[in-house]
From TrEMBL:
Belongs to the peptidase M24A family. Methionine aminopeptidase type 1 subfamily. Residues 127-352 form the Peptidase M24 domain. This is Methionine aminopeptidase. Its cofactor is Co(2+); Zn(2+); Mn(2+); Fe(2+). Residues 5-35 form the C6H2-type domain. It holds the Pfam family Peptidase_M24. A divalent metal cation 1 binds at D210, D218, E345. InterPro entries: Creatinase/aminopeptidase-like, Pept_M24, Pept_M24_MAP, Pept_M24A_MAP1, Zfn-C6H2.
Length: 413
């Protein structure tokens, strides 16, 4: 039985407040015409109308910033992009560009020709990878040092772009298949390929920065924005652990599918899911190539590791379902249930005896670190770094590198 919304005692008839009906407010049924009119005209009920109308106007205002093709999209979670996007950032003419940089559709000609086998890099190519991966780590750590509540993802993109340019390096994502920015930034329920926009980060967010530099390094990490809840902290820590455990098994002769088996072994007991749609990949002169690295268990993916292979391990782990959707921007992948996702990525070289993580910062002694700080201008293989030296990063970068042991957590869910 439905109770009258007016008197709160009698059974309601089919009489309904017409304003509530227009505004989509359910439950405004009354026992008789007098009760109906008294409630509609009453100050309390008018206030309800006003609150709902104001909320609708605010939502409409947010929607108005979106391009037309996104305005009717049913978002899976609470995150919303904030448009307009900033203009495409310029690349100085002296920086060497990849073959897709000026292509109207962002097509890479070299990637259009499928490789018949996994490339084994020679010593010269491996050294080039070491250099660019070291620079990629510098750029990621530097950009991450600016993460805080209030900064927009577009501002982080500008910081990352400038850091690449100052290292005479092209930011690989820019115009790759028409991606409009220099770094992928994925917040909360965004799994990957988030486009930097005008939304400021807020306390409690988690954010992934995915940095790539040409010839190509590829790495990413997920960071807390201020204090985060326990659930998000555990998701980040578990994802980081899964990557570390998967890297540890790499050596010549190991089947590539074992990477997914190891990740599944870490993730499954937590009840989290592993995204299947996106995978790790080979990386060198091509941004994406063989081998294809699946991150879930039980796959029949062929291929074994050989010395000289270079590839990424980059599992995307979700709190809820592994199913995903895409915003209507051609890029942003989000969890279907709107729950959070985390990711870490490293570029791995298979050596004769095991592996080398090319995107890890080099270990330095305290004495060499002091000497480095005294230099007025530091250079990496002839490429100057901004500010004269590689920036030192405290939180959140070191937190993540140490397995997220020092995350600020408030314990709320």
């Amino acid at each position: 039985m439905t109770i009258c919304a007016g008197c709160g005692e009698k059974e309601a008839s089919r009489l309904e407040c017409p304003n509530c009906k227009k505004l989509g407010i359910k439950g405004s049924f009354f026992c008789d015409q007098d009760s109906d009119l008294s409630l509609i005209l009453g100050g309390e009920h008018k206030a309800i109308h006003s609150i709902v109308q104001l909320a609708a106007q605010n939502e409409a205002s947010k929607e108005s910033t979106l391009p037309a093709n996104m305005r009717n999209y049913q978002f899976t979670g609470p995150l919303r992009p904030v448009y307009p996007l900033s203009a495409k950032r310029a690349i100085p003419s002296h920086i060497k560009k990849p073959d897709y940089a000026d292509h109207p559709q962002g097509v890479s000609a070299c990637e259009s020709v499928r490789e018949k086998r996994i490339k084994i890099l020679n010593e010269e190519e491996i050294e080039a990878m070491r250099v660019v991966c070291r620079l990629g780590r510098e750029v990621l750590d530097y950009t991450a040092s600016f993460i805080k509540p209030g900064i927009t993802t577009d501002e982080l993109d500008a910081i990352c772009h400038q850091a690449c340019v100052e290292r005479n390096a092209y930011p690989s994502p820019l115009n790759y298949a028409k991606f409009p920015k220099s770094v992928c930034i994925s917040v909360n329920e965004v799994i990957c390929h988030g486009i930097p926009d005008q939304r400021p980060l807020v306390e409690g967010d988690i954010v992934n920065l995915d940095v790539s530099l040409c010839f190509h390094s590829d790495l990413n990490a997920t960071y807390p924005v201020g204090k985060i809840d326990e659930e998000s902290a555990d998701l980040i820590a578990t994802t980081k652990k899964a990557v570390e455990e998967a890297i540890a098994i790499c050596k010549p002769g190991v089947a590539y599918r074992e990477i997914g088996n190891k990740i599944e072994e870490i993730v499954r007991p937590k009840g989290y899911s592993i995204v299947r749609r996106y995978t790790g990949h080979g990386v060198h002169t091509r941004f994406h190539c063989e081998p294809n690295i699946v991150h879930y268990g039980g796959s029949k993916m062929p291929g074994k590791m050989e010395a000289g292979h270079v590839f990424t391990i980059e599992p995307m782990i979700n709190l809820g379902t592994a199913n995903l959707d895409h915003w209507r921007d051609d890029w942003t992948a989000v969890t279907m249930d709107g729950r959070r996702s985390a990711q870490f990525e490293e570029t791995i070289l298979v050596t004769e005896t095991g592996f080398d993580i090319l995107t890890r910062p080099p270990t330095t002694s305290s004495s060499s670190h002091k000497k480095k700080k005294k230099k007025s201008k530091a250079k990496t293989d002839g490429i100057a770094t901004p500010g004269g030296e590689t920036p030192e990063v405290g939180t959140p970068t070191e937190e993540v590198a140490n397995g997220v042991k020092e995350l600020e957590v408030d314990g709320t869910s």
